[in-house]
Design brief:
The chain has 437 residues and is an alpha+beta fold. It contains 18 helices and 15 strands. α6 runs parallel beside α13, α12 packs antiparallel against α14 and α14 runs antiparallel to α16. The protein is globular, with a radius of gyration of 21 Å.
Length: 437
């Protein structure tokens, strides 16, 4: 989740073409392409209670303990609360329900991302152990109800809580009960961006299925391999899911801008206040609010509150998978590098995953949420997808090719992380699946 860093973008927006230029500013030649990684985990007490902000077992204590490893506090300018940490190009931040997110510095390889992630986890385990706390890497909280989870003290989350409640039926579940892993990618120009986004959209059901890790809800099987992904269906249809332009051949910077302009504001951040006017960004741009026109900083804020399966900012964010183990998270990064960056691989992916209609995509997406790799067409295409990535990386980036091995072993047996969870009783999950070095 965004840390709401203040930028130098106070100028008013004069035309839609300026908003398209924001994406052009992210273009990089292939020699400069990097990968980014974000990974969330739930923090629990030994008794299985979700972490709170304050107290002897609070998130604040965790942040304070991490300072011994060179992490420095990030303070919310409006509330004065300690909401994150920064070290070099990496950040730690809290999600609305106390989920702890690691966002690593951009790196050239999945191997380098994994190394940074493991260093963070080694430090985190030490700090958590000192407070009798445990990290659980799942897509959805397997026990407890949404009322059991406290909100973290950030004005951004208070505004989102109010607005999302008006937009769909599962906003609170998304904010408090879900955790994910994300990989970000670069692009060279608009044509390259369009090609990657469209292919990634076709890949989403495969990613949901391969990394499905959230079969439990309130102590019972949910009926879904990825209940986390299912929750997103009803958060806010105007800002989540798939863009029709990804499937009708019309996607471009301009089409993303048009879609984003018509999405309602989650909040409007002005002079330290989080306002919740009932406006789309297009209305804000055309009409203004309280006598002031929309600014570029407000556009950047707005982009961070859109949650499509593939999100465009000054990079491409793939945000469709459940939180999984660090090994499988590394495999995700390697998979995307091997399919989107490796020479010639994208041509093969386009042949493997030809264009389909939005209706067919939605049907396949639901199959992925419910059955995961138990649905034969998904399992078959997932194996082929990973095989392409492995073959591409062996010659081009062998260290990253090795990271695919846990995913390949899983696919050979048609297994998902969700299968191991369902094989356990809920009371044993924390003991068996709490992360250990």
């Amino acid at each position: 989740m965004s840390l709401d860093a203040e930028g130098m973008l106070a100028q008013a927006i004069s035309s839609c073409s300026e908003l398209e230029d924001y994406f052009r500013e992210g273009e990089k030649p292939p020699a400069q392409w990097l990968l980014g990684l974000e990974h969330e985990k739930f923090i629990y007490t030994a008794q299985g209670a979700p972490i709170r902000y304050e107290g002897e077992q609070g998130l604040l204590c965790v942040f304070q303990g991490l300072q011994a490893y060179g992490w420095r506090p990030i303070i919310d300018a409006q509330t004065g609360h300690h909401v994150g940490m920064r070290r070099g190009g990496a950040t730690l931040s809290t999600e609305p329900g106390g989920q702890l997110e690691f966002a690593g510095a951009p790196r050239e390889s999945a191997h380098a991302l994994h190394r940074d992630h493991m260093q963070h986890l080694e430090e985190l385990v030490e700090v958590l152990g000192a407070h009798q706390l445990h990290a659980l890497m799942l897509g959805y909280r397997p026990w407890g109800e949404v009322e059991d989870v406290p909100y973290m003290p950030r004005n951004r989350y208070a505004a989102m809580r109010k607005t999302l409640a008006e937009r769909g039926s599962t906003g609170a579940l998304m904010m408090l009960m879900t955790a994910t892993g994300q990989v970000s990618l670069d692009y060279s120009d608009e044509a390259d961006c369009v090609r990657k986004v469209v292919v990634l959209a076709r890949m989403v059901p495969l990613l949901v299925a391969m990394f499905a890790n959230s079969p439990w809800k309130e102590g019972r099987p949910s009926g879904y391999a990825s209940f986390r992904s299912h929750v997103w269906n009803e958060v806010d249809k105007a800002r989540c899911g798939y863009l029709p332009s990804w499937f009708d051949g019309s996607f471009s910077y301009a089409r993303y801008v048009e879609w984003a302009m018509d999405a309602p504001l989650l909040f409007l951040r002005r002079e330290g206040r989080y306002l919740t006017p009932k406006l789309s960004f297009r209305q804000l741009w055309k009409e203004g609010f309280e006598g002031k026109k929309a600014t570029f900083s407000e556009w950047v804020d707005h982009l961070s509150t859109l949650f499509p399966e593939v999100r465009l900012k000054k990079l491409i964010e793939v945000r469709s998978v459940d939180s999984v183990s660090p090994q499988l998270t590394a495999a995700l990064a390697a998979l995307l590098r091997g399919t989107l960056y490796a020479p010639g691989a994208l041509d093969e992916i386009e042949q493997l995953l030809p264009a389909r209609s939005l209706q067919a995509q939605l049907a396949l997406h639901e199959q992925a949420q419910r059955e995961g790799l138990k649905f034969e067409p998904l399992a078959k295409d997932a194996q082929a997808l990973v095989a392409i990535a492995a073959q591409s990386l062996k010659a081009w980036a062998p260290e990253d090719a090795q990271l695919l091995e846990p995913l390949m072993a899983q696919l050979c047996e048609r297994r998902m992380p969700a299968d191991a969870l369902l094989a356990c009783e809920v009371p044993t999950l924390l003991r068996k699946f709490a992360f250990k070095m």
